[in-house]
């Protein structure tokens, strides 16, 4: 067994049989002057994902540290990172990569480690990520998108909260001592931005301007294709959008400092975009359920805001006007 682990890699996977080898190989190719471990959580996969992980565990027992679930945790809204993964972390730092994404730079961990060692005021070190689509329904791009007017050497908490740039999970490199302060909120399904924002509360954020990993958008992804028992695509979209809005609400309640600014520039635009995307779909009637759920979240947030009544009326009026336009188009 290796002692003095300095980096713990956090990897979550579910039914990613065709991708998990490339992900694990990206970990194992890392050239470092320090020992690291890979804590990988298989959420009761029903394909061959767990079998592949067992092969790697047998071959690299000092590095691959798996957790095999017999019941799916994500569908039960169990915060499995907090419950199962974070307690096993031995490293001074944590790196993240989901099972369908992969690292492309063999020196990625070393570069991030060196930066954090010489810059103790930083709690997060990220880098640029290449985003690809499988199947290729859209052209590939990068995250953060280029050009970007944010200073990569000093990314602010508000830059993250107001979505002025997006740092992908496969680029995260965080100080582990903060994990003791972190508790995943109940019901949080998509926690990447929440985790990033939480760490950004305690220090500075850096983005190395190099591409060192790939974010793969595919039907088996944690976000796009995860275990939704939907009878059709619009039900799936309703649930995804609701979960995203719920994360926005948690960011507002637990992390945002300027709550009025966050509401106006992040929550409300996100709410509107998701809502009207659903209402413009072919199965728009099904999205009335989504409208009801998110209106309840909308008003719940307004209760916490100390804004003038005319501002509230103005925002609601915008929503009602947009809904009216969409419904009028549908009735023609």
Describe the structure.
The chain has 332 residues and is of the alpha/beta class. It has 2 domains: 7-217, Spore Coat Polysaccharide Biosynthesis Protein SpsA, Chain A (Alpha-Beta Complex), CATH 3.90.550; 233-331, no CATH class. The chain is 40% helix and 17% strand. The protein is built from 10 helices and 9 strands. A 5-stranded mixed beta sheet has the order 3-2-1-4-8. The chain has a 4-stranded mixed beta sheet with strand order 5-9-6-7. Helix 2 links the parallel strand 2 and strand 3. Helix 8 packs antiparallel against helix 9. It is globular, with a radius of gyration of 21 Å. The relative contact order is 0.11.
**What is the name of the CATH topology of the largest domain?**
Spore Coat Polysaccharide Biosynthesis Protein SpsA, Chain A
CATH architecture classification of the largest domain = Alpha-Beta Complex
Percent helix among the residues?
Answer: 40-55%
Tell me, rounded to a whole number, the average pLDDT: 83
SSE order: EHEHEHEEHEEHEHEHHHH
Radius of gyration: 21 Å
Write out the strand line-up for the largest beta sheet, numbering strands in chain order: 3-2-1-4-8
Helix and strand content put the structural class at: alpha/beta
Percentage of residues in strands: 15-25%
Overall geometry comes to globular
Low-confidence parts: 225-232, 307-312
Question: Can you count the helices?
Answer: 10
How would a crystallographer describe the biggest sheet?
Answer: 5 strands, mixed
């Amino acid at each position: 067994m290796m002692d003095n682990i300095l980096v713990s890699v956090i990897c979550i996977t579910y039914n990613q049989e065709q991708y998990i080898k490339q992900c694990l190989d990206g970990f194992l190719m890392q050239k470092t002057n320090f020992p690291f471990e890979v804590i990988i959580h298989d959420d009761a996969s029903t394909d061959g994902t767990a079998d592949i992980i067992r092969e790697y565990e047998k071959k690299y027992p000092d590095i691959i540290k798996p957790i095999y679930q017999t019941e799916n945790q994500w569908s039960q809204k169990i915060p499995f990172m907090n419950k199962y993964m974070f307690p096993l972390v031995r490293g001074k730092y944590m790196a993240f990569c989901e099972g369908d994404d992969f690292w492309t730079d063999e020196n990625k961990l070393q570069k991030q480690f060196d930066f954090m060692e010489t810059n103790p005021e930083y709690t997060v070190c990220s880098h640029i990520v290449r985003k690809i689509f499988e199947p290729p329904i859209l052209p590939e791009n990068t995250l953060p998108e280029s050009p970007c007017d944010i200073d990569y050497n000093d990314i602010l908490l508000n830059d993250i909260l107001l979505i002025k740039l997006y740092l992908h999970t496969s680029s995260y490199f965080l100080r582990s001592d903060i994990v003791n302060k972190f508790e995943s909120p109940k019901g949080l399904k998509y926690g990447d931005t929440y985790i990033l924002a939480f760490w950004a509360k305690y220090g500075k954020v850096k983005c190395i301007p190099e591409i060192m990993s790939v974010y793969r958008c595919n039907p088996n992804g944690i976000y796009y294709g995860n275990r939704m028992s939907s009878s059709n695509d619009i039900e799936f979209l309703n649930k995804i959008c609701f979960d995203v809005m719920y994360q926005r609400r948690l960011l507002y309640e637990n992390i945002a400092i300027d709550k009025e600014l966050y509401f106006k520039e992040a929550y409300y635009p996100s709410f509107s975009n998701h809502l009207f995307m659903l209402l413009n779909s072919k199965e728009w009637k099904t999205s009335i359920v989504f409208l009801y759920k998110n209106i309840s979240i909308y008003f719940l947030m307004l209760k916490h805001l100390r804004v003038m009544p005319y501002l509230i009326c103005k925002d609601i009026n915008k929503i009602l006007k947009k809904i009216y336009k969409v419904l009028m188009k549908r009735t023609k």
